[in-house]
Amino acid sequence: MSALGFIFATTLTSWHLLVTFCSLHVALCLKFFEHKPFDARTVMGFGVLNGISIGLLNLSLGFNSVGFYQMTKLAIIPCTVILETLFFRKKFSRYIQLSLSVLLFGVGVATVTDLQLNAMGSVLSLLAIVTTCIAQIMTNTIQKKFKVSSTQLLYQSCPYQALTLFVVGPFLDGFLTNKNVFAFDYTPQVLFFIVLSCLISVSVNFSTFLVIGKTSPVTYQVLGHLKTCLVLAFGYVLLHDPFSWRNILGILIAVIGMGLYSYFCTRETKPTEASPQVTQVKEGESDPLISDSLSSAENGAAAADDEPLKVPMWSSKYARA
Q1: Average pLDDT over residues 87-116
Q2: What angle do CA 211, 227, 245 make, to 5 degrees?
Q3: What is the pLDDT of residue 149?
């Protein structure tokens, strides 16, 4: 969109969220998912917080260099790990921490070029990191606490996110660009790409909530850095963007870190998932003959009334006096 002169990112994001809500409402009317209302205060706070975090990220980009903004995005993973460890007692093994360190180092080598620090930009970046981490952690915990799907949470929180950004967006974009979004010359080409971006955003917003709900905020950030590496690689291959050995080395290191993270996560998850199954099997194998007989007794309504009930003779509970 910036190539067309449309540089109002925050306002455009509010339109994305509004179209996402309308699309989900149509899906709800067609009964593709079920509406499940829950705590209104939680939904409102979550939606407003998400909107604020997006606005702060845009402010951080406006007040800082691109390199420092990339460092801000890299800091989200360690901040998320710290918050989940302190407030949710979640444990990250040394192998997970090592793989994340390799990943962040690789992405940093590939993307961070210049670092220009200033007081206002640093404060905004810190606020953006904290609010983004909390919002993503809430995306995961709300779905589990209230037993709602990603679609249900997105449908209920979208209006608050869109409203927050729609109110703040024009002022924020005007402050960063010194231009008025409503005075922009909306040519047919610009309108076409705005509508296209809004349609694409529906799947992006849905996948964001789905991935965070099914996995974790840290895994979602890892996938985000994978997207960054793919953008750099495809930009070089398809668009012949300038590329250096530093970019190649950084991408390779990041891919190794992602592979290690996936491997260790899978290895640590398997024993946890297998233990309940083992317990159920052991309980079921305690006395299979009695279990089969009792199951037959419970389903005896389907049998003939004059058919005698068969029970094991060694079971004292069913033995005749």
Answers
A1: 89
A2: 150
A3: 93
**Rounded to a whole number, what is the distance in angstroms from the first to the last CA of the chain?**
86
CA distances from 249 to 29, 252, 261, 273 (A): 50, 5, 18, 36
pLDDT of residue 222: 92
Phi, psi of 306, rounded to the nearest 5 degrees: -90, 0
**Which own/partner contact pairs does 94-97 have at CB distance under 8 Å and 24+ positions apart?**
95/260, 95/264, 95/268, 96/261, 96/264, 96/265, 96/268
Dihedral sign computed on CA atoms, order 206, 270, 99, 92: positive
Q: Do 152 and 36 form a contact (C-beta atoms < 8 A)?
A: yes
Q: What stretches of 154-265 adopt beta strand conformation (E)? A: none
Token pair, residue 27, equals: 């899906």
Sequence-ordered strand ranges (E) for the chain: none
Return the higher-pLDDT residue of 112 and 53: 53
Which pLDDT band holds residue 302 (cuts at 50, 70, 90)? very low
Can you tell me whether residue 168 is helix, strand or coil? helix
Q: Find the helix or strand (DSSP H, E) in which 1 lies.
A: none
Q: Which amino acid is at 32?
A: F
Q: Are 20 and 205 in contact (CB under 8 A)?
A: yes
Q: Record the pTM.
A: 0.78
Give 310's pLDDT tier (boundaries 50, 70, 90): very low
Q: Which of 181, 193, 178 is nearest to 3 (CA)?
A: 193
Determine which helix (DSSP H) or strand (DSSP E) holds 146, and give its type and residue range.
Answer: none
Q: pLDDT tens digit string along 77-87?
A: 999 999 999 99
Alpha-carbon span 173 to 180, nearest angstrom: 8
**Averaged pLDDT for residues 226-244:** 80
286: phi then psi, degrees, rounded to nearest 5: -60, -40
**Measured distance CA(176)–CA(91) in Å, rounded:** 40
pLDDT greater than 70 at residue 221: yes
Q: What is the DSSP string of 169-189?
A: HHHHHHHHHSS-GGGS---HH
